[in-house]
Design brief:
The chain is of the alpha/beta class. Helices cover 38% and strands 20% of the residues. The protein binds adenosine monophosphate.
Length: 274
Amino acid sequence: MQSWSDRMRSLGQRIGLVPTMGYLHEGHLSLVEVVRRRADRCVVSIFVNPLQFGANEDLDHYPRDLSRDTALLREAGVDVLYLPSPLTMYPQGFQSEVSVTQVTRGMCGRSRPTHFRGVTTVVTKLFNAVKPHVAVFGEKDFQQLVTIKRMAADLDFDIEILGAPIAREADGLAMSSRNANLSPAERRAATCLFEALTGARAAVRNGERSATAILDIVRTRLAHEALARIDYVELTDPVTLEPVSAVDPSALLALAVFFGNTRLIDNTVLKRTQ
Ligand code: AMP
């Protein structure tokens, strides 16, 4: 991987990277589109990173379909599919970690305390392997995007970090590889996430500013769904990810909800003038 990238760099080509865990959908492909606009060469990595899964999480059930992914990436005109094995990434004796301490504390970090360390460590390794000029991450994983921007700034990575908007299904559900693990009833129930966020947006449009009131609207909508079990619903500052008491002038509304064993996340940025 490194020698391909060295060769491209010596030819003056700009390299873009889209890191993924595979089982690709249109959300992933929209990140590829961003790279194609911002770089000459596009690398997509697929690596289901054991380091970012907790002991009781869904590593063994994470959906995989490499031949379908390969076909989709070929069709999208991607130059390189980088597919490291767990042993290449973490050979015996591996013991180093990259950790971003503050923006990873709340939200997903509270229920998944080792998750972001796993993400920042693997993304650092992917950056060192691929040597991209630009890397693109989805706003669906908003806390991850903020964390990686922080890491790149703090550790002087010479890489432009770009965010891309959330791609959604026709009924509003945010696209996610994990949607494949939902039962038909859970899949129907899961539209409540988007509806809850939409309800909060409508309230803000009608003048609501208070965090308590907005969080109440979201929790009430989710409580109507028997199959939904809330992990968290938070209103935070979109940069520091610290909780805020009002939308002033903007705020990130983010949530994580379990349907059976499948944990889904979604978010929206609320603005005073939206
Ligand atoms: P994953 O394969 O789930 O680890 O995701 C790989 C990248 O795709 C991450 O940067 C995600 O934020 C992004 N991504 C996943 N789902 C979506 C979506 N529905 N819309 C936009 N980006 C997404």
